[in-house]
Amino acid sequence: MRFAYYTLAFVVVLLLSVMGYRGMISTRPPIEMFPDMDHQAKYKPQAESKFFADGRADRPLPAGTVPFGRDALRADPAFLKADDFHYDGKLPDGTFGRGFPAGLAITGAFIERGQGRYQIYCAPCHGALGDGNGITKSYGMLTTPTYHDDRLRGMAEGEIFNTITHGKNTMLSYADKLSPDDRWAVVAYVRALQRAAHGTIQDVPAELQGGLK
Amino acid sequence: MSKIFPKSANALPLQLIIFLGVLGGVAAAGITYYATPAYLRVGYQPVQPVPFDHSLHAGQLGIDCRYCHASVEKSATSSVPAAQTCMNCHSIIKSASPLLEVVRQSYATGEPVPWVKIHKNPDYVYFNHSVHVNRGVSCVECHGKVNEMPTVHQDQSHSMSWCLDCHRNPAARIREPKDVYNLDSARLADQGPEGLKQAQKYIHDWKVMPPQSCSGCHR
Asked: Mutate which of A33, A133, A164 to disrupt the B interface (most B C-beta within 10 Å)?
């Protein structure tokens, strides 16, 4: 009987040394103990497809596709993006417009939304202050301009919107990351940064001036 | 008549039963330890087509998770970025690196980069990223400290009991909304009694009622 326990102890030690412990790093795909219905005949987002030639289950939109559905039936202003200024930053004559689209209320919450988006998508290059000294500058992105010179302070809001949408020079498009309204929120925050960089003591409310030197 | 069995054989049935009990116990312990996702899935670190370093980009450079995983706040899926997202910087920085050849190819041709998926839920699980991150559940709760991983591996088991641990007691794990994407932040409940009170307030105000019924996650 003793030998049965010895054998068991040996098997346990063997198992431990072969299987190791939980959390060990491995490059091998996990073993599936009960694969019932784990892999169903359906596509998940960004999944692979063996049917389409490019291997993608997500299909690119054919050129000229327009949305159709509930939004169109409710006469959503975003449908077909008919307002050129709101969705392109351009006036009917093709020049970039100043100011903000009539449909957007420039409130504190809207600018804070812009601040949040700015810090995610813009600050890595343009810097938290908009001075062009983001973290990428020390890695070789040397051409990022500051927002605080006269050229960019005088630039029309529509042109800033257009730059976010389509990119400019070494900057690529951010249209896939920022919705049109979020782009306008970022424009509003860029304006706030520019104003802050050229602020004077008179811009601070009187009751808060005491703490400043 | 000589004895066929020695006297010690009288104890054999009992000893056998005890041994089978021990054997069963060892087998149960082994299966519990080894045949569950905590062993099978945790630590999976596939070789990726591009040796993207999260500890450099998210840790050292401080780039927000959402810079690349942009859809996580508004969609069920946290999207894997298109090659253009890489090229936003790498058209200038390290633009000739051989490690980035696959990314440049993808950007030029539109063919996807063949990333290897690490965290795989079964197809009958319907997990929604946006509903979690918008209610104080940080990335780090399920994905671990990705900002310290040079190569990403699975950190948590993602087993059903693991999901339910949190669904049964969400106040213990949520964070301030501003800390959700800060993987080094502390849970509210770990910030003393005040923090726990704030967490319970959020659970109440946001009407957080994590489903514990089957149909909450399975359809």
From this structure: A33
